[in-house]
Amino acid sequence: MTTWDVCVVGGGPAGSACALRLARLGHRVVLLERRPFPRPHVGEALSPGVRPLLDVLGLPHALGGSLPSRGTLVRWEDTATRLVPPDPRAVTVDRGWFDHALLAAARAAGVSVRQPARAGRPRRGPAGWEVPLRHDVLRARFLVDASGRHRISGGTATATGPRTLALHTAWPGGGPARIGTGPQAWCWGAPLPDGAFRAMAFVDPDLLRRHAFDVARLYHHLLDTTGLFADRPRVLDVAVCDATAYRDDDPVTEDHVKVGEAAFTLDPLTSSGVDSALHSAMAAAVTVHTVLSDGDRAAALAFYRDSRDRTASRHATWTAAHYDRHQRYRDQPFWRRRAAPPPAPPRPLTPADPHRPVRLADEAAVVPTPCPVGDLVTLRRALTHPSLPAPVAHVADTELAPLLDHLDRPRPIADLLHAWSAHLPAHQAEATARWLLSRGLLVTA
Ligand SMILES: Cc1cc2nc3c(=O)[nH]c(=O)nc-3n(C[C@H](O)[C@H](O)[C@H](O)COP(=O)(O)OP(=O)(O)OC[C@H]3O[C@@H](n4cnc5c(N)ncnc54)[C@H](O)[C@@H]3O)c2cc1C
């Protein structure tokens, strides 16, 4: 019986992208997807970051048939409605076809796709993983759980935001995308490529419990409170799904990794679920490749866990600050549960700074950090600081650590730039110093 290098459970964006990368890196990969494609899926608004990721994966065609953004009507901070101009990189897709295109690309890259094939709970056997199917058992050295919120491999998860439910439906007709607020919800709506319009209301679960007898009525009431959806028909077929942000407590081990929504979910306010799912798939692929190639396992596991944690907490901070900008209903429990002020911005650069001696900020450190280099994870010295979303090993193409070694004692910036001229051109040295100062990583001594 075949023992696969990797078994991926789930053919959403995370599963397909991870399987595709691993197949291209030379591994024998099988992917199980329980539903025939194309299948419907919420999460149609793709943030600007998705396009470059698809380019890296060699899949720009996956956005064929997408609908470019035409701007969004936003009523968030107060009662004024403003039109936020379109970002040319943001699009809306039919997730049925988008996910289908990604899975087809994985198959074309050599992944053995079993579909429809529902995986049972995977178990560790004497020679690796055993994944039960209806009439078969698959064996694999490594398991990638890409089953979305189902998290087929189990384990515990911690909420990173308040429990949230989404009420949603779609109707024929277009109209501009919009985001609005009410006392008990925020609502989002956008036209879809097939000519339909989907609108969602995000609420606390206790509100739904109190109105469980008439979900459609509650849904329309919530849209009404925003004052932005007056042109809609009264559709009665309203679906409910979980939209709580959480992170899995154990996303990676030496033979198992969770990717995409199996590893963590974001508040839908970020509109970055697919973006993050693709990012985590690519991080997982270098992690699995490092482990299967007998590379630095500890570095690989730490890299994956750290990059997942950083993404989840960066989004949680951004989301809370965005809820905090809302004024009108800020004293209502729905808004109080979600809002938190943003962290203080770093101290700005002042004109006098370049003439004073500088040193590294107290909380800054240069530490060995797992980084992807090519297709493998290895340790590199990188700069860490609470204000940095991730450790920084390189500025442009130059390693940062040797530059920071010159700060073994406080030095005037002019001296520092002179020392750095051995490593990089003057304009880059200046830009690096400016960046370090503006982020509060270099401070006057
Ligand atoms: C209400 C709501 C609105 C959202 N809006 C947006 C948005 O506007 N933009 C955005 O980018 N993101 C959005 N998201 C998030 C986005 O949908 C997800 O982040 C994205 O789908 C995650 O991809 P994934 O591959 O991890 O999981 P999924 O896309 O959920 O794929 C998981 C796959 O695993 C399969 N599967 C599950 N169990 C098994 C099994 N036992 N055997 C075989 N196959 C299995 C499923 O059939 C599915 O195809 C939203 C989420 C919610 C809840």
Explain the layout of strands and helices:
Layout: E1 3-9, H1 13-24, E2 29-32, E3 45-46, H2 50-56, E4 67-68, E5 72-75, E6 82-84, E7 91-92, H3 95-108, E8 112-114, E9 123-125, E10 128-132, E11 137-145, E12 157-159, E13 165-172, E14 177-181, E15 186-191, E16 196-203, H4 205-210, H5 215-226, E17 239-242, E18 246-248, E19 252-253, E20 256-258, H6 273-292, H7 297-324, H8 333-338, E21 357-360, E22 365-373, E23 376-384, E24 394-395, E25 398-399, H9 400-404, E26 411-412, H10 413-420, H11 426-438, E27 442-444
Parallel strand pairs: 1-2, 1-11, 2-8, 5-14, 11-20
Antiparallel strand pairs: 3-7, 4-7, 5-6, 9-10, 10-11, 12-18, 13-16, 13-17, 14-15, 15-16, 19-20, 21-26, 21-27, 22-23, 24-25
Helix pairs in contact: 1-3, 1-6, 6-7, 10-11
Flavin-adenine dinucleotide is lined by residues 9-15, 32-35, 41-46, 118-119, 146-148, 150, 152, 166, 200, 241, 243, 260-261, 268, 271-275, 277.
If you had to describe this structure to a student in words, what would you say it looks like?
The protein is of the alpha+beta class and 445 residues long. It folds into 3 domains: 3-65 and 92-157 and 248-324, FAD/NAD(P)-binding domain, CATH 3.50.50; 165-242; 353-444, no CATH class. 29% of the residues lie in helices and 26% in strands. The protein has 11 helices and 27 strands. It has helices at 13-24, 50-56, 95-108, 205-210, 215-226, 273-292, 297-324, 333-338, 400-404, 413-420, 426-438, and strands at 3-9, 29-32, 45-46, 67-68, 72-75, 82-84, 91-92, 112-114, 123-125, 128-132, 137-145, 157-159, 165-172, 177-181, 186-191, 196-203, 239-242, 246-248, 252-253, 256-258, 357-360, 365-373, 376-384, 394-395, 398-399, 411-412, 442-444. The strands form 7 sheets. Strands 1, 2, 8, 9, 10, 11, 19 and 20 form an 8-stranded mixed beta sheet that branches. β10 and β11 (137-145) form a beta hairpin. α1 runs parallel beside α3, α1 packs parallel to α6 and α10 (413-420) crosses α11 (426-438). The chain is globular. It starts with a strand and ends with a strand. 40% of the residues are buried. The mean pLDDT is 92. Flavin-adenine dinucleotide (FAD) is lined by residues 9-15, 32-35, 41-46, 118-119, 146-148, 150, 152, 166, 200, 241, 243, 260-261, 268, 271-275, 277.
